[in-house]
Amino acid sequence: MAKRPSAMDRFLEWTLNLDRRWIYLLVAVSVITPIVVPIGLPVTTTSSTRSAFEFVETLKPGDVAWLSFDYGPSSAPENDPMAEAFLRQCFLKKVRVVVIALYPLGGLGLANNVLAKITAEFPNLVYGEDYVNLGYKDGAAAVMRRLGDNIADAFPTDVNGRPIGEFPILRGIHDIKQVKVVFTAATGLIGEYWITQVHAQFGTPVIIGPTAVSAPKYYAFLNAGQLVGMLGGMKGAAEYEKLLRAKYPELDRFYGGTRLFTATKGMDGQTVLHTVILLLILLGNIAYLRSRARRRVTDVGGGRGPAGTRP
Amino acid sequence: MTETFPGIGIWISALLTLFAFSFLYKDNPFFRFAESLFAGVSLGYYVGIVLNQTLKPNLIEPLTTNFAGNWDLLMAGGIGLLLYMRYVPKIGWVSRYALAIYVAYYIGVEFTRRIHGEVLPQLSRTVVPLFPWTGATLESLVFVIGVYSVLVYFFFSKEQNRVTRKIARVGIWFLMISFGAAFGFTVMGRIALLIGRLNFLILDWLYPALGI
After folding, report:
1. In this complex, do A266 and B196 lie within 8 Å of one another by their Cβ atoms?
2. What are the distances in angstroms from CA A293 to CA A304, A307, B179?
3. Is the separation of the CB atoms in A261 and A35 below 8 Å?
4. What is the DSSP code (8-state) at residue A272?
5. CA nearest A230: which of A69, A102, A76, A46?
6. Do B198 and A31 touch (CB under 8 A)?
7. What residues of chain B score a pLDDT lower than 70?
8. Which residues of chain A have pLDDT under 70?
9. Spatial separation of the C-alpha atoms in residues B47 and B195, rounded to whole Å
10. Any residues with CB less than 8 A from the CB of B155 and at least 6 apart, and which?
């Protein structure tokens, strides 16, 4: 007579036939809970983010940094916090920032939104002196090539159509070689162009903030010394926020609010959900292996033939 | 403190997000409406961007304001138009010339970029002297073993023998580890997008709508 399966076996068998919608619900609960009740899990920093942060710290007041919005709304939860943190650091250090957008689907809209949000936090900033928005330009690789020759060739006017010669921030800055650092918040290929074209040809230091999906490929550039630093996805942005808050405690008024989305808060959900996913993978594998073992025993016990063969 | 009631834009975004999420339960007309709307709006937006941000400032305006100084743009515009000739079967072959120019241009740009900006710098940092031996040398050695074993795995011009099969096996391990890292990052990226959407639903829509 076949042995009756234990309660554990029945539970494991049940998990194998579980409707996947229960897993979706579990995922939703795992993400929603830390949003409603923030946990504040610690974020550890990595060397790639630290080197990016420390490089910006070495810039002097009056230096010009370049921020390129090379992403669209589809990756804004990852890239927005990076761009915001970089802008806050630059403005606190009185580093001047030139903003552009090279991503066609929404790059300029995001640049406008982020710039409006951060400049509102620093009411003393003057447009054209402390920062300028040069807008969107099509043809990323060709634009970068022109930036190496003459910025005015690539961007004759700012986003509002005013000639860039009017802006004090760009006086003495003729081409991208004179910019102290390029920060590209990027999805897709455009971030890579800044490294393989602008850094390779003109030597301008580049920091990249890629989406997590593209982050692995940029480690090769980082290890080859082609990048000053890298903020990999939401985790990288959270690390940057941590370094920024540690260095500039006055930023707590922006990062400490409960109703504001930050990468650090997003990492609560990441951690909880990653733990849930790991447990589900473990449970799924145990259930599968246990079920296979039970089938073998049943097959042999039932006289159906050697283990592993099915009638 | 209660925030202001969310505006119409927030409501539309929130409802469309919920329509999209509803597919997770099962396919339904709300999801299909959101899907079709998204595809249509994306295409329309992209067409608008190309017209207003590419063709207008780079072709139309230069030609209308200073034709004598920009007449050469007609050639670029003409080559672009040739691409559409494939929709006229009798002269469809003309589009191949435009395509050939386009491909040749990108090969020229990409070839230099890849060699100068990617292959050479990474090669020079991968293959470094073994002595003096430091921690970084060990790291480089792992890189070199990884690069060569993966190259052997992808070398299909000659049948593998006993030795190359073993090297290729090491290459598979390196590939699997890199795929695992890439998959882990991909999961993190997708979760980040989910977090972003749910944050929007709760903090920007639900809380203000409920007066919390």
Report:
1. yes
2. 15, 10, 29
3. no
4. H
5. A46
6. yes
7. 1-3
8. 1-3, 301-311
9. 30
10. B164
Residues in chain A within 8 Å Cβ distance of B50: 104, 138
Tell me how many helices (H) and strands (E) chain B has: 10, 0
Tell me the β-bridge partners of A98: A66, A132
Residues of chain B with C-beta less than 8 angstroms from the C-beta of A136: 49, 53
Answer whether A164's CB lies under 8 Å from A151's CB: yes
Nearest CA in chain B to A232: B185
| Nearby residues of A114 by Cβ (< 8 Å), 6 or more positions away | A69, A80, A83, A84, A87
pLDDT in tens, A267-278: 999 999 999 999
Count of beta carbons in the 10 Å neighbourhood of residue B85:
17
| Contact residues on chain B for A77, CB-CB shorter than 8 A | 192-193, 195-197, 199
Instruction: Give the residue from A183, A179, A180, A182 showing the smallest Cα distance to A85.
Output: A183
The tens digit of pLDDT for each residue in B88-146 reads: 999 999 999 999 999 998 898 888 889 999 999 988 887 778 888 887 788 888 888 99
ipTM of the complex in this document: 0.87
Number of cross-chain residue pairs from A and B with Cβ atoms under 8 Å apart:
133
Whether A67 and A86 have beta carbons less than 8 Å apart is answered as yes
**pTM listed for this prediction:** 0.88
Q: Does residue B199 sit at the A interface (CB-CB below 8 Å)?
A: yes
Q: Does B25 touch chain A (CB under 8 A)?
A: yes
Q: Identify the closest residue of chain A to B26 by CA–CA distance.
A: A21
Which one of B25, B118, B189 has the shortest CB-CB distance to A213? Answer: B189
Q: Chain A contacts of B58, Cβ < 8 Å? A: 138
- Is B2 in CB contact (< 8 Å) with chain A? no
DSSP assignments along B78-119, one per residue: HHHHHGGGGGSGGGTTHHHHHHHHHHHHHHHHHHHHHIIIII
Cα–Cα distance between A256 and B114 in angstroms, integer?
43
Where in chain B are the domains? 8-71, 82-126, 133-212
